[in-house]
Amino acid sequence: DGGITQSPKYLFRKEGQNVTLSCEQNLNHDAMYWYRQDPGQGLRLIYYSQIVNDFQKGDIAEGYSVSREKKESFPLTVTSAQKNPTAFYLCASSRTGPLTEKLFFGSGTQLSVL
Amino acid sequence: QKEVEQNSGPLSVPEGAIASLNCTYSDRGSQSFFWYRQYSGKSPELIMSIYSNGDKEDGRFTAQLNKASQYVSLLIRDSQPSDSATYLCAVNPFSGGYNKLIFGAGTRLAVHP
């Protein structure tokens, strides 16, 4: 079955530590996205990538980094510079085209600070 | 600052009633509009998409778009307890396939038996 796999489901970060969230898709989608969701709030875009080896900052990129070395993979690193990392992180993918395409979401990673 | 506004709720409706969820957006040039349903602790799932003015129906769901007034709504007919969730409105203010959706904070819907 095609879909998006995020891991781990739960992640704990110690102060000063960098952590990496995994996102893999087998939908053959060109575009991939990372969103952050805080309780009672909507999704906010962190980074997105329309093509391999290229990515752009979203609205809240500070303290995060990404890479897109393969079409299937778009890992997100939460660096120690992100002072308030506790949130629900969602990875998504879509086709690209003249109209907005449906976003397919992974199951999410809940990141908490120890 | 492009914004999408929703009433946070909770919107409480009895089983079998019509639930009406509303959303307004600030960018008049927005092209595409979506409603996602999100259960607690889960990822959002697409319910409806709408691109032109008017109504679009899919089963018990109807999306309504009025670009002149900059609002989009979702009607859920014959509401069921399983419809209890947070409904996120999402808008794409860009054209050309750039899928940079802007999400509202969501409206929590509670359907009681």
Describe the structure.
The complex is a heterodimer of chains A (114) and B (113). Helix content of chain A is 0%, strand content 49%. Chain A has strands at 4-7, 10-13, 19-25, 31-37, 43-51, 54-57, 64-66, 76-78, 87-94, 104-105, 109-113. In chain A, the strands form two sheets. In chain A, strands 2, 4, 5, 6, 9, 10 and 11 form a seven-stranded mixed beta sheet that branches. A four-stranded antiparallel beta sheet of chain A has the order 1-3-8-7, with no helix packed on it. Chain B has 113 residues and is mainly beta. In chain B, strands 2, 4, 5, 9, 10 and 11 form a six-stranded mixed beta sheet that branches. In chain B, strands 1-3-8-7-6 form a five-stranded antiparallel beta sheet, with no helix packed on it. Chain A binds chain B through residues 31, 33, 35, 40-45, 48, 50, 58, 88, 90, 94, 96-103, 105-108, 110, and chain B through 4, 8, 31-32, 34, 41-46, 49, 51, 88, 90, 92, 96-101, 103-106.
Topology, pairings included?
The complex is a heterodimer of chains A (114) and B (113).
Chain A: E1 4-7, E2 10-13, E3 19-25, E4 31-37, E5 43-51, E6 54-57, E7 64-66, E8 76-78, E9 87-94, E10 104-105, E11 109-113
Parallel strand pairs in A: 2-11
Antiparallel strand pairs in A: 1-3, 3-8, 4-5, 4-9, 5-6, 7-8, 9-10, 9-11
Chain B: E1 4-6, E2 11-14, E3 19-25, E4 32-38, E5 45-50, E6 54-58, E7 61-66, E8 71-76, E9 85-92, E10 102-103, E11 107-112
Parallel strand pairs in B: 2-11
Antiparallel strand pairs in B: 1-3, 3-8, 4-5, 4-9, 6-7, 7-8, 9-10, 9-11
